[in-house]
Design a protein that fits this description.
Layout (H helix, E strand, L loop, with lengths): L2 H15 L4 E4 L5 E5 L4 E2 L8 E8 L2 E11 L6 H10 L8 E10 L2 E12 L2 E15 L2 E10 L7 H10 L1 E2 L3 H4 L4 E5 L6 E3 L4 E4 L2 E8 L2 E6 L6 E8 L2 E6 L3 E8 L19 H4 L1 E5 L9 E4 L4 E4 L2 E8 L2 E6 L4 E9 L2 E5 L7 E5 L1
Length: about 350
């Protein structure tokens, strides 16, 4: 069998295997993800923070519990994880692990691991992983656990579900403000990040945006400062009685744009232009095919998940099953056009 035919067959097989992946959107619109085959809802009584999911492999359960709450003023990912881990430190066999930076969906996160005995039995150990994601004024914690001996059996499912995760709550208010803002009056520039942090000259901490109000929470212990704000295209005006009015202009392109505001650019792509979420324009599809390209190099394309790289018009995706596909990529009137690889025809995508 020719290599090209073999690759196409492998891709077809991968798509078929993942056909059972089911999209799930939280009933309160706090998050969404795609559940891999065999995973199902397993609600926890009195849990108002999110949802629990469960799957068994050879009789051993694995669970993924998602919790979402408002960020505390100037809260760090370490503080979020410390709060969750504290409840496990009194259990028998508690053994601390460590923290590593990672990504959940397209946003940076922190992963913490540790172990405890299952039912106090030293012969069976629970492997616990906590993922802390701060996004749009909220803390998202994804708590995965199973028996240590079965951890590898859930690796692929967990990687794919984490790659598909989208933080939804607070996005409408906060996402348009994310970026670096240049002070038009010669004063201090303002930086607002996806993780809810801000920098304003020597001040740094957390921020929250809601219904035309912007509140800064300095980590240095200063009192929070509340502003009203008006966002007009690339211009941001904030004001309150203490400091009066400050006018800013966005530095560079907005990180989050609705499709109808996509830049009308035609020509060669850069890696930076590719980063973000895209969806296929196809009137025949009831559920759009989505391409997610994270700055960290992780990606998902419909049912596939893995890593991506880009060089001189060629987008290469290597799946978690070690299958590599290369597409020709170009930008036409703000739309991404892919061809070649395993595609029978060109695909046109617009930014989400």
């Amino acid at each position: 069998m020719r290599p090209a035919v073999l690759l196409l067959s492998l891709v077809t097989l991968l798509v078929a295997v993942r056909a059972e992946a089911k999209p799930y959107t939280d009933t309160k619109k706090r998050f969404s993800l795609e559940l891999e085959a065999g995973w199902e809802l397993a609600p926890i009584p009195a849990d108002t923070l999110g949802m629990n999911f469960r799957k068994k492999h050879n009789g051993v359960p694995g669970s993924l519990h998602v919790m979402v709450r408002a960020l505390k003023p100037a809260e760090t990912s370490k503080q979020t994880l410390d709060e969750l881990e504290e409840g496990f430190k009194g259990e028998l066999g508690y053994q601390a692990g460590g923290d590593v930076p990672t990504s959940v969906g397209l946003l940076p996160a922190v992963r913490r691991t540790f172990t405890v005995y299952a039912s106090g039995d030293a012969s069976t150990v629970r492997a616990i992983e906590l993922y802390a994601l701060h996004a749009f004024g909220h803390a998202h914690v994804l708590h995965f656990e199973t028996l240590e001996k079965s951890r590898s059996a859930f690796s692929r499912d967990l990687d794919r579900m984490l790659a598909s995760y989208q933080a939804l709550v607070g996005k409408g208010d906060n996402a348009p403000l994310i970026g670096t803002w240049i002070n038009l009056d010669g004063g201090t520039d303002l930086v607002l990040e996806e993780d809810g942090s801000f920098k304003l000259g020597p001040l740094a901490g957390g921020f929250k945006a809601e219904r035309g109000g912007l509140t800064l929470y300095p980590a240095q212990g200063a009192a929070p400062e509340a502003f009203s704000y008006v966002l007009d295209g690339a211009t941001l005006t904030v004001a309150n009685r203490n400091v009066g009015e400050m006018r800013f202009k966005r530095s560079g392109a907005a990180r989050f744009k609705p499709p109808d505001e996509a830049p009308k650019v035609t020509g060669p792509l850069t890696r930076e232009q590719l980063i973000g979420g895209w969806k296929v324009v196809d009137a025949a599809s009831t559920e759009p095919l989505r391409l997610q390209l994270a700055a960290s190099g992780s990606c998902s394309f419909g049912p596939l998940a893995g890593r991506w790289r880009y060089s001189t018009g060629r987008l290469t995706i290597t799946s978690t099953a070690d299958v590599t596909i290369t597409y020709a990529a170009s930008l036409t009137a703000g739309k991404l056009v892919l061809s070649g690889g395993d595609l029978e025809r060109e695909l046109t995508l617009i930014r989400e």
